C-alpha cells in the first residue's frame, strides 16, 4: 500500500473521497458550515501534496481542481471556483482532449456558475458544448450497438447486451449532468425547442445503451410531443419516431 503522504495515496483518496467530501460539499451549505470546513481542510492538504509532487499526472490535477471548484461553489466564492474549474478544464484537456466526456464536467460546472450569475449567454454556450460532447460520445456507441441489439442473436437466442462504455459512477454523472441541462432547457423550450429536443434525444441514447428501454421510450415520447407541439419539421418528427420504432421492434422481439 502506498505511503500516507505519497502522490499515489492522495490520488486514491481523491478518487475515493471526491464523491464523499467535495461533491456533497455543494449540499453541505444547507447542512451547516462544519462539513464544508472539513472538506476544505482535506482538499488543502491534498492540494499541497499534489502541487509539491512531480509525479502527479494531468488527470490527478484535473480531479483536484474540480473538487476545489465544487467546494468554492458551495461557499459561493465564484471567482475562486471559476479559477479552479478553468484549471480543471485545462488539465483534463491535456489528459483526455478538449472534447472528451472527462473534460465535459468542468464545462458543466462552469456553466452552472454563469447561469447562477445570470450570464445566460455564456452558460448557454457551455451547456451546448457539454450536450454536444455527450451526444458525440453516445451516438458513436448507439449507431453500432443499436444494430447489434436488433439484428444479432447469440447462441441462447437472446439479444447481445450492450453498454455505454462507462462505469457506474460515470453513468450516474452523465444522468445528473444531462437531466440538469434538460431542466434548464425545458424552462425556455418555447423559445428554443430544438435545444430541449436535442438533450431529450441524448438521454434516450444513454438509457437505451443502459438497457433501460422504459426510460429511453419516455424521453423519446417527450421529444416527439414537444416536436409536435412546437410544429417542428416532419423530418424532425420522423427522426424521433424512428427512435420509438426501435424500442417497439425490440419489445416485439422479446414477446415472440
TrEMBL record:
UniProt signal peptide: none
InterPro entries reported for this sequence: TPR-like_helical_dom_sf, Zinc_finger_MYND_domain
Xref: SUPFAM superfamilies: TPR-like (SSF48452)
Organism superkingdom: Eukaryota
Name of the featured protein: Zinc finger MYND domain-containing protein 12 isoform X2
Origin species: Balaenoptera musculus
Source organism phylogeny: Eukaryota, Metazoa, Chordata, Craniata, Vertebrata
Gene: ZMYND12
Amino acid at each position: 500500500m502506498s505511503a500516507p503522504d505519497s502522490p499515489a495515496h492522495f490520488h486514491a483518496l481523491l478518487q475515493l473521497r471526491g464523491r464523499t467530501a467535495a461533491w456533497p460539499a455543494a449540499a453541505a451549505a444547507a447542512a451547516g458550515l462544519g462539513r464544508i470546513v472539513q472538506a476544505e481542510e482535506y482538499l488543502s492538504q491534498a492540494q499541497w501534496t499534489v502541487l509539491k509532487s512531480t509525479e502527479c499526472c494531468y488527470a490527478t490535477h484535473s480531479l483536484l481542481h474540480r473538487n476545489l471548484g465544487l467546494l468554492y461553489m458551495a461557499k459561493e466564492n465564484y471567482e475562486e471556483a471559476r479559477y479552479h474549474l478553468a484549471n480543471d478544464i485545462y488539465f483534463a484537456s491535456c489528459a483526455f482532449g478538449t472534447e472528451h466526456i472527462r473534460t465535459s464536467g468542468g464545462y458543466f460546472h462552469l456553466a452552472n456558475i454563469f447561469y447562477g450569475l445570470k450570464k445566460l449567454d455564456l452558460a448557454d454556450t457551455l451547456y451546448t458544448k457539454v450536450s454536444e460532447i455527450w451526444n458525440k460520445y453516445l451516438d458513436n456507441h448507439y449507431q453500432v450497438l443499436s444494430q447489434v441489439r436488433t439484428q444479432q442473436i447469440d447462441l441462447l437466442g437472446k439479444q447481445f447486451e450492450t453498454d455505454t462504455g462507462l462505469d457506474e459512477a460515470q453513468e450516474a454523472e452523465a444522468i445528473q449532468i444531462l437531466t440538469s441541462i434538460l431542466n434548464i432547457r425545458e424552462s425556455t423550450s418555447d423559445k428554443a425547442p430544438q435545444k430541449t429536443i436535442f438533450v431529450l434525444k441524448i438521454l434516450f441514447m444513454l438509457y437505451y445503451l443502459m438497457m433501460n428501454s422504459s426510460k429511453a421510450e419516455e424521453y423519446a415520447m417527450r421529444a416527439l410531443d414537444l416536436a409536435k407541439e412546437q410544429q417542428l419539421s416532419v423530418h424532425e418528427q420522423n427522426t424521433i419516431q424512428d427512435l420509438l420504432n426501435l424500442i417497439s421492434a425490440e419489445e416485439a422481439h422479446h414477446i415472440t
